Amino acid sequence: MQRLAVYCGASMGSDPRFAEQARRLGGHMAARGVDLVYGGGHRGLMGVVADTVLGAGGRAFGVIPQALVDLEVAHTRLTELHVVSSMHERKAMMTDLADAFVAIPGGIGTLDELFEAWSWNALGYHAKPFALLNEDGFWDELIAFLDTATASGFLSPARRAQLLVAGSPDEAIDVLAAACEKAEARMVW
Question: Alpha helix locations (H) across 32-168?
Answer without folding.
Answer: 44-55, 66-70, 87-97, 108-122, 140-151, 157-162
